[in-house]
Design a protein that fits this description.
This protein is mostly helical and about 170 residues long. The protein is built from 5 helices and no strands. Helix 1 (about 15-50) crosses helix 2 (about 60-75), helix 1 packs antiparallel against helix 3 and helix 1 (about 15-50) runs antiparallel to helix 5. It is elongated and about 80 Å long.
């Protein structure tokens, strides 16, 4: 006796025009949410590992600091969002591409930090540190990679502004 085929409940295939209408805003929302989540993860890593020397901050102060740094990063890295939108249109799903973007963003943040540093040398009596230390470079690179990985998990691995073509069995 042949096995009956699976019969799906009425859904997106029943109303193809509505499916196409809702697909594009949902994809763009996923790209934006992936970008913001990546910024928040990267900012949290920088706050915990670099600014707070590995200790967890108080919840309210930590959330405010992470939000502030995520806002600063969004203000500086908006071109990265445009690249992610191009990757969405071109259907670039590779995690290597997204991790490369994370490294580019981390190197841009380090360059911006170095260029905005004061010209005079840090004063050890006041407890000042050099602008770029090995720890700060490692934390920034790790934060860029972690943020890119989170962005890839949310939006990058299913990139494509074209809905998948459905074929009849």
């Amino acid at each position: 006796m042949p096995r009956p085929r699976y019969r799906a409940m009425p859904g997106p295939t029943t109303f193809p025009a509505m499916n196409r209408f809702a697909f594009y805003p949902v994809r763009l929302l996923r790209v934006a949410l992936g970008f913001i989540a990546g910024l928040v993860v990267a900012a949290a890593m920088v706050v915990i590992l670099d600014l707070n020397k590995g200790r967890l901050p108080e919840p309210l102060a930590g959330a405010a600091t992470v939000g502030f740094y995520a806002f600063l990063a969004a203000r500086l890295f908006w071109p990265l969002l445009l690249v992610l939108l191009v990757a969405e249109v071109r259907r670039w799903r590779s995690p290597v591409f997204h991790l490369g973007l994370g490294l580019v963003a981390a190197l841009a943040a380090l360059t911006w930090t170095y260029l905005r540093a004061p010209a005079e040398a840090p004063d050890p009596i006041l407890g000042e540190e050099p602008v770029l230390t090995v720890t700060r470079v490692a934390v920034t690179l790790a934060a860029g990679l972690a943020g890119a990985l989170v962005s890839w998990f949310i939006a990058g691995r299913s990139a494509g502004l074209q809905p998948p073509e459905r074929t009849r069995p």
